[in-house]
Amino acid sequence: MTYSKHCPGCNAVFEEDENDPIHPYIGASKGCWKFFTEVLAWEGENFGYPKIHRLLVDSYCAQHPGVKSRKSIQSVAIHLIALYMAVEKQIDLKVITKSMDRALSKGAIFEWLEPPEDMGNITILDIKKAKSLKEYEDILYKWARSILKAYSKHHDIIKTWYEKFFY
Predict the structure, then answer these.
(1) For residue 28, is it within any domain?
(2) Is residue 25 part of a domain?
(3) Which of 71, 72, 93, 146 could form a disulfide with 120 if both were Cys (CB 3.0 to 4.6 A apart)?
(4) What is the pLDDT of residue 2?
């Protein structure tokens, strides 16, 4: 049976089937998660997984924090730090990926950040509107800035994590 449902993360409406898979700790509806996986395939087909792929994953995961658990805490923290590094510090996206691996291997531990009520007006639905790699990059940077703005009350904590684990 197919039905429409609001995603608890981004609040967009998606068609979903009760048999659609769901991610174990990312807080997306089945339909939103399915659409995200379709965007991953679309990205590969159209742009060959460019380095901007980093922002796609970071923005999506930070916008869909799920419920408080060890995995969701680590996920949201890492993705918010990556967004901070890309947007605020303008660090090369490939460098960010290497930094994430290094921090996690050091056993970085984070705390739960209460998710914002408003996650911004850009969602995964906006991503496939891009007709060129340049448009795709522009949309992803807008999304990243939107997510950081949504989490602005936690900006100091995100900055502290960056300085502690990645600086």
Answers:
(1) no
(2) no
(3) 146
(4) 75
